[in-house]
Structures are given as structure tokens and as C-alpha cells.
Amino acid sequence: MDDAPPVKDTKPKVVAEKQKTVALPRASRRKGPEPVKVKEEEEGEDNDEEEENVPPPEKAATKAAAKPKKPLFPVASKKKDPEPKPVKVEKVVDEEASASASEVEEELEEDEVDEEEKPEVIAKARKIVQTTLTTKAKDPYPDWKPGEPVPYAALCKTFSLIELTTKRLIIMEHCSLFLRQVLRLTPDDLLPTVLLMINKLAPDYAGIELGIGESLIMKAIGESTGRSLAVIKQDQKEIGDLGLVAVKSRSTQPTMFKPKALTIRGVHNGLMGIATVTGNGAQGRKVDGIKKLLSAADANSPGKVDITKDKGGPSEAKYIVRFLEGKLRLGLAERTILVSLAQAMIAHEAYKKNTVPSTGDIEKAESILKTVYSELPSYDVIIPAMVEHGIMNLREHCKLRPGVPLKPMLAKPTKAITEVLDRFDGQTFTCEYKYDGERAQIHYVAKDADEELSQSLPSAAATEVGRGVAAIFSRNSEELSKKYPDVLAKLQSWVKEDTKSFVLDCESVAWDVTEKKVLPFQQLMTRKKKDVKIEEVKVKVCVFAFDLLYLNGEAIVEKSLRERRELLHKSFNPVEGEFAFATCMDGQELDEIQTFLDLSVKASCEGLMVKMLDGTESGYEPSKRSRNWLKIKKDYLAGIGDSLDLVVLGAYHGKGKRTSVYGAFLLACYNPVTETYETVCNIGTGFSEAVLEELHTALVETVIDRPKPFYAHSTGGQHQPDVWFEPRFVWEVKTADLTLSPRYKAGMKEGVDPAGDKGISLRFPRFIKVRDDKKPDEATTSRQVAEMYRKQESVTKSKGPAADDDFEY
Ligand SMILES: Nc1ncnc2c1ncn2[C@@H]1O[C@H](COP(=O)(O)OP(=O)(O)OP(=O)(O)O)[C@@H](O)[C@H]1O
Ligand SMILES: [Mg+2]
Ligand SMILES: [Mg+2]
């Protein structure tokens, strides 16, 4: 067990004293110029702290070791479980329901899951489009009257079929078949159908969130079924899946009258109502809204259900509850839905003409929809346009436009300049300072321009600025005008007269007015997040623009970075302390880059961004973490290359003086393929007393009785945190390196451990900051963790233990 994290065998100690001396997060100590030196000693000091801060193992250690090993996903367990029996149905392939897909899939390799569908799966899926999808023979649900609202039961039937399999191809087929049936019978309902499938009510920038915790849902289940809250809580303790608790609660209820069956439209409206209630008694009205949906759920299939046996039974209540919880857990990635949607659409168009689409056309349709969605991530705009104009004409009708924020392009981490040189070998690249602030996407349209700031933008979000209208969005498309009214107020002064519309990619950075230089991120953090009044702004920000995506009525994402940069520099006027272009350097030599890296650090930046400069590969790739953008962070050069953003799943009570707060936490990365949070470390280092208090106050609101069924965690007695949380908070964490450990589950599905019983874990993790700009499902993914782990291994192997000899600081 020597590969387990060192935290494992430590004895309980008093943490309070020791933690007072805990150093501040590194960035806050980084005032002014500082050499790029990597401080090995500091990691050692972390080591000591770590030992002090980690929760004590319990006496159960040996007992637990003797227990049979628990499966990764307790709810899907086939083995005997000493805990209350999980009742979730097992995933098996339902051959009968989709013989064609399963036949084809036989030939494919076993379920290697992927964030992007495998090319072979896609190829086979296209065959299915040409056969199954152009007939009605395999429709998942009996036809409803054309033009009538789509029954919610039809969607739930599809969900149930999807839930019975893990085969990507079969999942895709179910998905496409249903979407095509909707297109054939009630195309007007395609939008709410897709939204309910992706577990969203509206595009991200609309800012509509359910935010319903377990307690509200339990209350609603209780009240709508006449069962006491105590009984519901008991059920939840035993079953561990609120969706099934809802089904169980319903099944014991005699049906006095038959409510009207739910429709997709009705459920979408109902959920929207729940999400948008505000003001006095909002909680109560949310509960009422949930009750209303739940009492109408499964109206067509009343009666008693044995949830442990009945796989295909009533499921509307289950999926409503899961939607409210924010996780449908169908293994249905949004990417899959996008491809299925394209396939359904092209099949539907062919079906209407009584033809079969060619493979080339199917491929083209998929690619059109993917591109359109990456530039205009709004089903609200795309779906009606697609239904009206046909998928092949979609690009003409749906283009990147000011007012609809796109997901920014992201970078891959690197650990050495040589790694960057290897990557860009033979190509021209450019280096830019990597500013340490907050990503900001600025949209602007002049009043006398031909276009308008999109209609789809909530009107409150567009601010009048001089000659035009503007909006600012965060990395995850949240609207930031309430946070940066000072930026908006000055914006017009840096827009040149004949610049009529644009979308800018920038970093907003705290600015020291007297010293005339940028300040570390910690300063930016002290700014208020909402309702900022210009007169009260204490921390000024300067906007550093590094890319231009749209200019004067035209999307320019496909132009080379060199061209975009030229247009950027031509279209704006820098204003000191308000607006600047990211400092860049086009030298290609190692020593030039090294010098530039030094300079960036002296200028209080985090390091460098190195980007492909010419050719198609230098185009802007929205929403993609691309190898055409690499980041070099000076703090991570000798470590794993980057920090991680992890979700807080649980905590351990503090000891000694710290009994009123949590002393350590259990963190996880996210696996978007299985929709699970996989544990990756315990952390007790890097927190100040004040921060611990704050975190406690926020976290205490999200305590739940037992881990969510979509938490992949070890179940041995000594590994259990004292409390579990809803998955809500994302923290940035730094680590010395990554190791394999039987205690954690991260990356277990990524094949890093040949034996398959260890996950990846962080050694000497240290808390850096709360990431308000990331949602839990935007946390570092299991795949990224695995990639970092593998890279660390290969670097270590090829260069010896000193991970980076290229730096002689
Ligand atoms: N010149 C620049 N070009 C591109 N991005 C920059 C630049 N300067 C600063 N940035 C910021 O750096 C970020 C990328 O690195 P960083 O590690 O900070 O990402 P992050 O927000 O933690 O996200 P992730 O770790 O998921 O990539 C960009 O999203 C952007 O906010
Ligand atoms: Mg950053
Ligand atoms: Mg990061």
C-alpha cells in the first residue's frame, strides 16, 4: 500500500494550531517581480501540513480491509452489498428493443467510452440512419396524434431504453429514433424535447437554474404522496436515489382520480416555472410546482410497482426528480444528442422525400450542426431554424452573432518550453502573456450597424454604451454586466469609429492605478460580483484583449490568428489602465521564449499562452480544449503542468479549536461520460481560518444524508467523510504530483491502472481558490487527470525524476 497517498496512516492530531501558519495561496504572495524559480522546499513543507490536516482513519481500518471490495458504482452493483440494498436496475443490453444497433455493435470493441463518439460508432450509426431511421418500424412509442403535444411518457420510454444499455451505438439509435418520431409528428416540440434530454431549461446565458436541493425535493415527494417526510428520508437513506424514492412513494398511493397525462411541453413549462419563481415564499412555491408535476406523473401507468424488479415500469416521476437534481444519469452525453439530432433531422428530411440519405450527406449534416452549435450554442435559435430551413441550409441561418455567447477556446497544459517546441515543430507560433484574471467575452453592436444585438439576449443583459449596445459574458456564458459596469461605461472610448460590431475574447485583470500595472487574481476576487456601483469600485480592472471572433457583421473565427490579431489591433484604441492588447512575441527560439516567460512573470502574469499563428489550425475553436493553444504556468513547471478544478463532495469535522468548521474535504473530478464525480483526494491544506469559516457557512447548506448515486467513491469504513454535500462547489487545487491509490476513483475508467483497482490521486494537494466561474460539470475531467498522470509518467521515464531540466533558474 505504499502507493496510497501518504495521508492514509496518519494519526489524529490537533489541527488548529498548525493551520494558523498555513501559507497563503501562492498567487497572493506573488507581489511584484519574482524569479520563475520553482520552490521544491515548499512542497516539502506542504507535506508536513498535510499530515496534520487529514482526517483520522477510524478503527474500522482492518475490518474494512477484510470486506469484499466494493464495485465502482454502488448503485449499479451486481455484488452483494452489505449496505441497504441499492435498487437501481442494472444496465443490460436490451437486444429486443434494438437488435440492429446491438448487432452492429457486436463487431465493435467493448464499450470504450469517449467524450467524442468513436469514429467507428459514428460510422455504424450512419448505417442505422440509412436503414432503421428512414422507416417507422422501430419507433419507440406508439404514434400520438400528429400536431398534438408529445407525451412525456414517450420521452421517458426512450430514457428507460437508454438506461438499459451502456452501448454507445444503441444509445444513439434510441435517441435518434425518438427525435425523428417527434420531427415526424410534432416538430414544434423538438426544442423542449431536446432541452429535457440535455437536462437544461434554456441556453446557459439565460441564467435560468433550478437550484433545487434534496430537501425540497423530499418535501415535495412527501406532500404529493401523503407520506411523512420522515418516511421519505428513511427511504432515501435506504434507496439512495431520490428518483426511485419518488416512484416508490407514488406506487403505494391509491389513485383517487386520474390526472391528465404529462406532455413534454407541460413538463418543460412546469420546470421553467419552478426555476424562475422569486421573491417571498419562493421555496414554498417551488415545492408546489414540483408537487404538481409529481402528482400528474405516471398518470397512465398507476398501480403498484416493485422498483427492484420492474425495469420498464412507470418512470415519469423518476426522470422529473432526476432532472430537478441536475443529473439524468443515462450516459447520454450532450455531444451524443447533438449527433443524434443531426441524424434524426437528415433521416426525417429523406423520409419525407421517400429517399435514403447518402453517407456523405449524413456526415455533412453532423458536421454542420456541430459547427453551428459551437458558434451559436443556443438550441432556442438553432432548432426552429433547422426545422424551417432544413439542416443543410442551417449555416446560412445560424451564424455566430453578438448577443449569443460562445464557449471559449481552451488551452492544454504543458510542463516545459521544450514540450511546446516539440508540439509546434515546423509551424509558426506566437507567445502571449497569460494574464491572471477572469475570462471576459465582450459583445458589441453599434446602433447604426446593420445587425442587432441578438433578440435572444435577455433585454436586461444588454447595456447602452455610447454609440452602441454591449454585453459581457463569463467563461461559462454567465452575463457579467452587473459585475463590470465600469468596463461598460468606458467601452465606447476604446472602440474605433468604424468598428460597428464585434465579439472580443479578453481577460479582465485587476489594475493598480498608481503603479500602473496588473495585480494578482486575489485582488480581482475582492470585487463585488453583482450590483457593482461605478462610484464604489475600489478594484479597477483593465481589459486585455487577445482575440477577435466577430467584426463588422462577420464571423472571423476561421481566419488565421495572424489575420485576427491584425484586425484586432486595427479596430481598437488601447487606453492605459482600461483596455490593452495582450503583450505578444513572435520569436521561435527557446531562449527568446524563456526570456519572454521571465518578463511575463515580472509583469505579474501567470506565464505564457503559446498559440498556432498561421494556417487553418490557427482558427478559433470555440468550446474546444485545443492543442493549438498551450499554456505554460510558471508555478507548475516542475509539477504536473496545471492546477485542477475539483468538486467538493464531502468533509471531515475539524478537531480541537476547529470543531465548529470542517477541517478537511473530499474532492472529486468529473467524468462527463458516466456522469459521475470520481473522488481524487482529501485536502486540508491551503485554507486560512477565515476561508474555512466561509466555506463551512456555504457548504453546511448543501449537506445531504448520504452520497449521491453518481458519486464514485470508496466505501470502506475508514474512508468515509463525516458529511456529504450536494455537488455544487468547484475549488482550484494545486498538487505536487499524481499517484495511483486504491482509495480514490479518479480516472479508473481511463485504463491508467492495468489491474483496474486503483484510481489517480493528488499528492500534497493545496487549496488555491473557489472557482465561482465553473459549474461542477465544468470541473477538471477524469480524462484530463488521466492525461496529466500519463504525461507525468512519460516525462519522468524519459527524463528522470527531475521533471524539467530545461530550466536553470
Ligand atoms: N493571452 C491569453 N490568451 C488566452 N487566454 C488567456 C490569455 N491570458 C490569460 N488567459 C486566460 O487563461 C485561461 C486559460 O488558462 P487557465 O488555467 O487560467 O484556465 P482555467 O480558467 O483554469 O481553465 P482550465 O484550467 O479549465 O483550462 C483562459 O481561459 C483565459 O481566461
Ligand atoms: Mg486563469
Ligand atoms: Mg485551470
Describe the structure.
It is globular and about 75 Å long. The protein has four domains: 15-36 and 81-199 and 333-367, no CATH class; 214-325, Orthogonal Bundle (DNA ligase i, domain 1); 410-633, DNA ligase/mRNA capping enzyme (D-amino Acid Aminotransferase, Chain A, domain 1), CATH 3.30.470; 644-795, OB fold (Dihydrolipoamide Acetyltransferase, E2P). The strands form four sheets. Strands 3, 4, 5, 6, 7, 8, 9 and 10 form an eight-stranded mixed β-sheet that branches. Strands 14, 15, 16, 17, 18, 19, 20 and 23 form an eight-stranded mixed β-sheet that branches. The protein has 809 residues and is an alpha+beta fold. The protein contains 25 helices and 23 strands. Residues 1-99, 103-114 and 798-809 have low confidence and may be disordered. Helices cover 35% and strands 16% of the residues. It binds adenosine-5'-triphosphate (ATP) and magnesium ion (2 copies). Adenosine-5'-triphosphate (ATP) is lined by residues 408, 410-411, 432-435, 439, 507, 546, 582, 609, 631, 642.
C-alpha-based Rg, rounded: 27 Å
Major sheet: 8 strands, mixed
CATH homologous superfamily identity of the largest domain = DNA ligase/mRNA capping enzyme
Instruction: Tell me what the CATH architecture of the largest domain is.
Output: 2-Layer Sandwich
User: What is the top-level CATH class of the largest domain?
Assistant: Alpha Beta
Number of strands: 23
- How far apart, in Å, are the first and last alpha carbons? 36 Å
CATH-derived topology of the largest domain: D-amino Acid Aminotransferase, Chain A, domain 1
Give a list of the ligands.
Answer: adenosine-5'-triphosphate, magnesium ion
EC number: 6.5.1.1
InterPro entries: ATP-dep_DNA_ligase, DNA_ligase_ATP-dep, DNA_ligase_ATP-dep_C, DNA_ligase_ATP-dep_cent, DNA_ligase_ATP-dep_CS, DNA_ligase_ATP-dep_N, DNA_ligase_N_sf, NA-bd_OB-fold
GO molecular function: ATP binding; DNA binding; DNA ligase (ATP) activity
Biased composition (Acidic residues): 41-53, 95-118
